[in-house]
Amino acid sequence: MSRIAFIAGTYLPANYSVSDYTARLHTSLRDCGWESVVLTTYYAAEAAYDPHALGVVHGWRWTDLKALVKAIWDSDADAVHIQYQPQIYGYQPAILLLPILLRLSGWRSPIVTTVHEYGDWEWQDRGLLARFSAWLKQWGQQRQRWDRESGFLLTLSNAIIAIAPEVKTLIQAKLPNINRRLWYVPTATNIQAREMDCSSARQVLRQTSNWHEDVLVITCFDCLDSNNEIGTSLMAFKQVLTSQPQARLLVINGIGNSKLSVQETNTYQAQLQTKIDELELQSFVRVTDYLDEEIASRYLAGTDIGVLDSSVSFNRSSLVTLLAYGFPAIATHMPSDLPDGHPLLPIPPRDVAALTTALTELINCPDKRRQLGETSRVFSETLSWQNITQQHLEIYQSLFGR
Predict the structure, then answer these.
(1) What's CA 370's distance to the chain center, in Å?
(2) Strands, sheet with 285-287, edge to edge from the N-terminal-most edge strand
(3) Is the residue at 292 inside a domain?
C-alpha cells in the first residue's frame, strides 16, 4: 500500500482554504485505500484533532529544516507532496530549499509540489549579501536550476500540480523545461452541494431575509476579498430595481472564519452599510457575516443568480462553489486562460452598465437561467473531489511506475 507524506505550512482547515484543500485530499486518498500523513507545525497538528496530522517543526525557519527532513524519512512515505502557498509558511523562504535538502540526504522517491499561488511573491534578501543574492537568483533562473519565486520546489519536483490554468501558464512561461512534469488539477468546492429540497431552501432564505416568497435573489459572493468592487454591484443592482422591483441582493462575505482581522472586517462592514444607505437599498439588500457550511449551502440552494465580484480563478473555491449549485454566474474579472467550456458570463470589471444589462437579461429570461444553470452544474461535476482525487492517483502511479 502506497503512503503519501503531505507537507502543510499550516493545517487549520476551518481557517485557510489551502488547509481545507489538503485535508479533503488527505481524507479522500485514505478513502481510496492509500495511506497518508500530514506533516506540519506542532501548533497546527494539535489544533487539527486529526490523528494522521503530525507536528514535526516549530515553524518554517532555516533551523526547522533538519527536523523536517528527518520527519519525512521517519514517515516511511513512498512520496512527499508539498502544498505550497507563501502565506501558509509565513512568507519564510526556508521551505524553498526542501527538495534539494531531501536529495542531498539520499531521498530518491518522488517529490510532488502543488502550487496554490504563483506570480505574486518573491523572497528578498535584505542583508549584506542582498546584491549577490539577487545576482545568484537571476543566474539560476536563466539556467532553470531554480526559480526566483519558488526556489527548488518546482525545478527538483518529479511532478508539479497547478490548481488554476493561469498558474500553469505562468509556470510554463518561466520554466519551459519542466513542462513535461507540469499538471493542471483544479480545486473543488469547499461546500459540497447537498441534496435538499430547493423549494424549501428558497423559502428559508426568503423568510430569514424578511423578503416576499416571490422575489428573485441575486447573490454576490466573496466580497470581503474585493471591497473595491462591491460598489459596482450595488450601483448596478440599484439600476436593475427600476425595471425589476422583485429583485433582491444577498451579499455573502465568505464561508468559515474570516482571514481579516476584526478591525478590518468591521471597517469594511461599515463602509458597505454606508454605501447601502446612500443608495437607499436597506429593504432590498441583506449582508451576511461569514457563514458556516450548512447555512451557506441552504442560502446558495435558494439563489437564482450569482455574481462573483473578484478576480476569477479556478483556484478560488468560491467560484467553484457557485457553479456547484447550478445557477448562472456572472464574472466581473475574466482571465483569458480559463478552461474551455466554462459556463461563466464575463463582463468588464467596474462596469455598472454591463452588469446591469447582464442581470436584467437573466431576470427577464428564465429559460436562459435554466440553461446556464444546467451548464454550470455539469461543468462543476468535473471539479468534484472524486475526480480530483483520481487525477492525483494517476499522477502518483505514473511516478511510481517510472
Answers:
(1) 26
(2) 285-287, 247-252, 216-221, 305-308, 329-331, 345-346
(3) yes
